[in-house]
C-alpha cells in the first residue's frame, strides 16, 4: 500500500494526475493497480487525507545526467474510489512523535511530516488498516 502527500487543486476530482513526485520509504515501487491514500498537502493549502484510489498509470521519471544523488521520482494517475469521511492531517498526527512506539499514526507522522516535502511513500499493513477507518 502507498500514500501520497501532494498539491491537490480539486479534492473532489474523480481522477488525479501527479507528475514527477518524490518517493521515499519504498514509494518508488508504486505500480498500476496499487491502492493509494491521497493527502492534500497542508504546505499547498490542503487539509490532509482526502481520498483513496487505485493507480491507473505509473512511470518512473528518468534520472538527470550529471547529478550524483537524486531522489527517485514517479509520475502516477489515480482513479478515486472513496472520499475521506473524517479529517486526518498534520495537526491530528503531530502528537504521535515517539518514533519507536509502533503506532500507525506515528508511522504516518514520521514519513510525511518529519521531512515535510510532498512525496509518495510506502506504508505498512497496519497504517493501511488505520487509514481505511477514515472512509
Rg from Cα: 14 Å
SSE-based structural type: alpha/beta
User: Describe the biggest sheet?
Assistant: 6 strands, mixed, barrel
The number of distinct structural domains comes to 1
Describe this structure in words.
The protein is α/β, with parallel strands linked by helices. The protein has one domain (2-132). The chain is built from three helices and six strands, in the order E-E-E-E-E-H-H-E-H. It has helices spanning 90-93, 104-114, 125-132; strands spanning 2-6, 15-24, 35-40, 48-61, 73-83, 119-122. It has a six-stranded mixed barrel. Strand 3 (35-40) and strand 4 (48-61) form a beta hairpin. The protein is globular, with a radius of gyration of 14 Å. The two termini are 16 Å apart. 34% of the residues are buried. The model has no long low-confidence stretch (mean pLDDT 96).
Helix-strand blueprint:
Layout: E1 2-6, E2 15-24, E3 35-40, E4 48-61, E5 73-83, H1 90-93, H2 104-114, E6 119-122, H3 125-132
Parallel strand pairs: 1-3, 2-6
Antiparallel strand pairs: 1-6, 2-5, 3-4, 4-5
Helix pairs in contact: 2-3
Amino acid at each position: 500500500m502507498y500514500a501520497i502527500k501532494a498539491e491537490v487543486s480539486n479534492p473532489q476530482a474523480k481522477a488525479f494526475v501527479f507528475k514527477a513526485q518524490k518517493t521515499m520509504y519504498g514509494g518508488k515501487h508504486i505500480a498500476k493497480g496499487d491502492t493509494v491514500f491521497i493527502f492534500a498537502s497542508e504546505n499547498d493549502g490542503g487539509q490532509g487525507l482526502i481520498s483513496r484510489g487505485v493507480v491507473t498509470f505509473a512511470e518512473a521519471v528518468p534520472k538527470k545526467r550529471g547529478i550524483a544523488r537524486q531522489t527517485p521520482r514517479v509520475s502516477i494517475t489515480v482513479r478515486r474510489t472513496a472520499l475521506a469521511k473524517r479529517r486526518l492531517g498534520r495537526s491530528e498526527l503531530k502528537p504521535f512523535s515517539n518514533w519507536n512506539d509502533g503506532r500507525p499514526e506515528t508511522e504516518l507522522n514520521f514519513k510525511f511530516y518529519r521531512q515535510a516535502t510532498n512525496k509518495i511513500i510506502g506504508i505498512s499493513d497496519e497504517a493501511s488498516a488505520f487509514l481505511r477507518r477514515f472512509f
